[in-house]
Amino acid sequence: MSLSGILRISASLALCVPGVALAQEEAAAPAAVLNTGDTAWMLVSCALVLLMLPGLAMFYGGLTRTRNVLGTMMHSFAAMGIMGVQWTVIGFALAFGASSIIPGVLGWSSEYFLLGGVDPGTIWDGTNVPTYLFAMFQGMFAIITPALIAGAIAERVKFGAYCLLILLWGFVVYEPLCYMVWNADGMLFKDGAIDFAGGTVVHISSGVAGLVAAMVLGPRIGYPSRAMKPNNLTMTLIGAGLLWIGWFGFNAGSAVSAGETAVQALTVTQISAAAGAVGWIVTELIHHGKASSLGIVSGILAGLVAITPAAGSVTPAWALIFGFGAAVVCFLMVQLKGKLGYDDTLDVFAIHGVGGMFGALLVGLVATDVGGWSQFLIQIKGVVIAVALSAVGTGVLVWLIDRTIGLRATEDEQQVGLDHSQHGEDGYGLTHL
User: Fold this and answer.
1) Cβ(305)–Cβ(297) under 8 Å?
2) Could you say which DSSP state residue 170 is in?
3) What is the pLDDT of residue 388?
4) In the prediction, which pLDDT does 430 show?
5) Of 55, 56, 74, whose CA–CA distance to 425 is shortest?
6) Which residues contact 369 (CB under 8 A, 6 or more apart)?
7) pTM of structure
8) What is the CA angle 27-30-36, rounded to 5?
9) H or E stretch covering 101
């Protein structure tokens, strides 16, 4: 071979080798690496969301009568245990599994059963945080959602039957809805439905469930003719404050990072809650001539609920509309309850159900970049599916449990109070009122 031929071959090899090396580098995608900043924020967010449970217990407990305060608070703490175990054993596998049991509706991954196929170093897909941490953060949502339902049937439900109800409700309603909205293979996720932190998955589902459960069980003894005043509004105010604080983890934590989206979510959450408080104050002053402590905390919750689905998708200016508008709409629903005649003890549907729908629909119109009528129609579909699934699933469960082991406390049990009849204790050690 001539010298020129050898040089041509050498030049060709020199050009090819770097190309091969580059192709190999492109084929080997960089492995996900734990980000300590993101992980630290998500650890804090987990704690903040769990803080909402004792906050909810205080909020609900203060609104019931003295003889039911402990029993009402127990509902929140029971959910921390029951749903905490259910989620760890199988709930996470059903909601975030990569395979489908029911395509688009419910999933499964054997590695997530008891979290046995992952370890502290496994990184959750699409994030820089451990799978353990993502599972626990989502688990906090699985805990608080059925706990919200308890407020609608407070003062008339058996404790053991309530525990069975929330356990089964997780399988029948929460995990399928969670899969549909937040799993990449879920039908609503594929449609592009916006639910940043749970307006549909958490608040619409629990609000509708509370309404259905209250209607199936029937009203409390003496409702609405007998006065049923809150036993401790100061405790309710403290509970509302804890919920407001915890909501920063609830919404900003849903960014699953410590970046710009988390900052946006925290900002609009604060603004909407404040606007909700102002909205309820103004509405009460116009309607009643006085602003109440119960009203201001109701407005705060309405603002927080409404911004939850939109926290990563709207501007601060729109957050003012979300909060103020939700306060007005939820206030009107509370007033309408008396005319409709159902006994939702603590207005779970009026605040969480209606507030969640208001936020889920409005974000379809005003969401940054994607807002418009086409997105609004997608949001309507998501709301309809959530309402239908929760209404039917809850109705069947409540009916079955009440007609088998009994979900509603007897008249004697209600008269003596749930603290004594269900737990053998008294919340304050005072006489029954």
Assistant:
1) no
2) I
3) 98
4) 56
5) 74
6) none
7) 0.91
8) 170
9) strand 99-102
Provide, rounded to the nearest whole percent, the portion of the chain with pLDDT above 70.
Answer: 92
DSSP, collapsed to helix, strand or coil, labels residue 202 as helix
Instruction: Give the Cα separation of 75 and 156 in Å (integer).
Output: 12
pLDDT value of position 16: 43
Q: Give the chain's end-to-end CA distance (angstroms, integer).
A: 108
Indicate the residue type of 347. D
Mean pLDDT of 394-422: 96
Tokens coding 181 = 């909205």
Radius of gyration of the chain (CA): 25
Cα 100–chain centre separation: 23
Lookup: tokens for 274 = 């404040």
Q: Is 141:91 a contact under the CB 8 Å cutoff?
A: no
The DSSP bridge partners found for residue 157 are 408
Structure-token pair, residue 429: 């050690």
* Per-residue confidence (pLDDT) for residue 20, from 0 to 100: 40
Close Cβ partners of 14 (under 8 Å, ≥ 6 residues apart):
none
Tell me, what's the pLDDT at 32?
Answer: 76
Would you state the structure tokens that stand for residue 120, as one six-digit string? 């502290």
Task: With CA atoms as reference, report the closest residue to 170 among 194, 197, 193, 202.
Answer: 202
Asked if residue 87 lies in contact with residue 143, where contact means CB atoms within 8 angstroms, the answer is yes
Q: What is the pLDDT of residue 30?
A: 59
The pLDDT score that the predictor gives to residue 26 is 45
In the three-class reduction of DSSP (H, G, I as helix; E, B as strand; rest coil), residue 106 is classed as strand
pLDDT of 171-197, one tens digit each? 999 999 999 999 999 999 999 999 999
User: Which pLDDT score, from 0 to 100, does residue 225 have?
Assistant: 86
CA 354 to chain centre: 14
Tell me which residue has tokens 């989502």: 138
Report which DSSP code applies to 189. Answer: H
Tokens of 327: 């306060």
**What amino acid occupies position 283?**
T
Higher pLDDT pick, 351 / 1: 351
List % helix, strand, coil for the chain (3-state, nearest 5).
75, 5, 25
